[in-house]
Amino acid sequence: MLNYSVDADGIATVEFDYPNKSQNILNAGSMGAYAEAMQKALADPAVKGIVLTSAKKDFIAGGDLAELGAATDAAAFHAAISGWHKLMRGIELGGKPVAAAFNGSALGGGLELALGCHYRVAADNPKARFGFPEVTLGLLPGAGGTQRTPRLIGMQAAAPLLMEGKRIKAAEALKVGLIHAVVKVGDERTAARQWVLDAVASGAKPLQPWDTKGFRIPGGGPNTPNGMQMLMAANAMLREKTYDNYPAPKHILSCVYEGLATNIDTGLAIEARYFTHLVMSPVSKNMIRSLFFGMQDANKLGSRPKHVAVQKYSKIGMLGAGMMGAGIAMCTAQAGIAVVLLDTTQEAADKGKAYASKQWSKQVAKGRMTQEAMDALLARIHPTTDYADLAGCEMVIEAVFEKREIKAEVTKKAEAVISADAIFASNTSTLPITGLAQASVRPANFIGLHFFSPAEKMPLVEIIVGKATSDETLARSMDYVRAIGKTPIVVNDSRGFFTSRVFGTYVSEGMALLEEGVPPALIDKAGLIAGMPVGPLALADEVSIELIHKVTQQTRADLGEAYVERAADRVAAKMVAELGRLGRKSGGGFYDYPAGGPKHLWPGLAEHFPQKVGAGSLCVPGIPLRGQATAIVTLEQIVERLILAQSVEAVRCLEEHVLRAPIDADVGAILGWGYPPFRGGPIGWLHSLGLANALDALERLTKTHGARFAPPELLRNLAAKGESFYPA
Ligand code: NAD
């Protein structure tokens, strides 16, 4: 765990070396070993000073998320954290100089341990980063980070590190004063040791700035005019951005405000309470499960069929050089893979490549890419109309128009050229893969790779396994997704797959609320307050109301009698067929988009969807609002409907085996449509509520709003057994 040695000059070296891991992490075990080593060094009269360092390529990666995610005993956790604080204060006041030497990154708890040393020196390692990523997982830097950082570098400089999880390079860490020196790679230990030797020779007692007489917080404390102004603005900005959904940044701000108004020891005690509260909160549990472990497993291809050899890609065929084709070509070329970009005319194919060129030029202009790198990327994309150019492709991806006949035609033409073991993937957003595979002569090699728009930016790919798709095709497709740096989730074939189906319920519920006469401004604001990135009506405009209408018509035609009409179908039909309001790209939908000005709700909505329901907080029960509104809806009720509509559909996807695992729903929702991570995901949210509570809520909603909220058997059964989708 730790290597301990003392040299002839009496300098002890404490070297973190976590067994069987590539990174050092902090948990009960490693902190226990650290405490033992430091206490030994402090107590040993032969030891004059201490150098703290690492045997790995980085210093310390941070706290052990498995341990934090599993912690459920608040009192025990608080006691342990208070113990860490006591230990670190003992080191600061122990009378022996302690220096930390960073060979690589020091993040989270790792950086905090170092802030509890008297001196910090970093190697000039371009890969090294310094910061506190805790907030991104619903936590705070709870080993003194919220207290020592602003005392060292001031509240203003500390804010982006603590509250946004910003990571900085060594040069910037030096500039803001987080570290004392940057030296040549390999010289960091020597430099730390030299500082310790000099400090010993000076004979002065080593002290942290906050333990010296007359200490003042750089830039002013919370009760100075500067500090007041900064904290007030930070508080307002935080609320505007998060709608109070994320307790971590708020608690960090509280730690800074309350902790810096007092001495460091009281400040640390304050931090320990806020930290314990966050570690115990369902928000951090949700974020750790979905954003860290779920994402990590997806990126490591945890569900990839193991027996298939890993496929390396050198050439990919892209059919259709439209919006999606161009984006997919971009990320493929960026992964070092050659792309044949095929369309019906040379002009259309060239247009796809021109799109890539335009996007990359922006990177070059911003200094994020060199012209040579851009030229190399462009050289990998070959625009063409000739199917013969597809020869040698390991995979062909189709992103032509969403028409079965056209997709069938390009499948046949491509398969005539590519080798027998090449994969054919469709980027269809709505057409079931098993049906499309009928056009293929080798349906085992046929698969769905559903990208999101804009494809060059969006991190998720939904992989759809058709009835005939082989394990080998699945495994090799996952290798491609990994090669282009995206995160895959694997789902079984079904109408709308997983993402479109569940995401669609959010938009539909917003449209149902509109039909009921709820004010549209309230509906979209409720979406934002629920944590979604965009309100449901604004989102319908982005997706295009016309497309929603078309998909409904197609589904209705396919299902015939079995189709159950929804309020959203009527709203979409009215907007498109009657009012000609097709969505953003067609000039306007639920919103108007004036040139040069911000969008605003279309005033015609008031006439065509008259308000019948008043907002609970704005009117008195029974007293009509604006003439007709007598029914009342509260913000909480709207939020509940917008969120549970997604959850119940996700459970249906699990029950119908469209989803293979609950975590796929949660990772897919967060990456695919920006589902709020604090809820964990549509399934994670039910887990947070507790399944018995979720069941009650769904039964209540079914009574008032109909069968779309009806709780699936799977949920009933789990709730009856007192179980959940995830371990408690
Ligand atoms: P698009 O209209 O921008 O591009 C389609 C391209 O295909 C056009 O350039 C067209 O010329 C070309 N094309 C048409 N017929 C062809 C043929 N026979 N051979 C070769 N090329 C042909 O459409 P898009 O938005 O890029 O969507 C393409 C596919 O991706 C559709 O299946 C769509 O459902 C799916 N998709 C779209 C999105 C999205 O948000 N736009 C998201 C996921 C999936």
Question: How would you summarize the topology of this molecule?
Answer:
Blueprint: E1 2-6, E2 11-16, E3 25-26, H1 28-43, E4 49-54, E5 62-63, H2 65-70, H3 74-92, E6 98-102, E7 106-107, H4 109-115, E8 119-123, E9 130-131, H5 145-153, H6 155-164, E10 167-168, H7 170-176, E11 181-183, H8 188-202, H9 225-242, H10 247-260, H11 264-280, H12 282-299, E12 315-319, H13 323-334, E13 338-342, H14 346-365, H15 371-380, E14 381-384, E15 395-398, H16 404-415, E16 423-426, H17 433-436, E17 446-451, E18 460-465, H18 471-483, E19 487-492, H19 499-516, H20 520-529, H21 536-543, H22 545-559, H23 567-578, E20 591-592, E21 600-601, H24 605-608, E22 613-615, E23 631-633, H25 635-655, H26 662-673, H27 682-689, H28 691-705, H29 713-720
Parallel strand pairs: 2-4, 3-5, 4-6, 6-8, 7-9, 8-11, 12-13, 12-15, 13-14, 15-16, 16-17, 18-19, 22-23
Antiparallel strand pairs: 1-2, 9-10, 17-18, 20-21
Bound molecules: nicotinamide-adenine-dinucleotide.
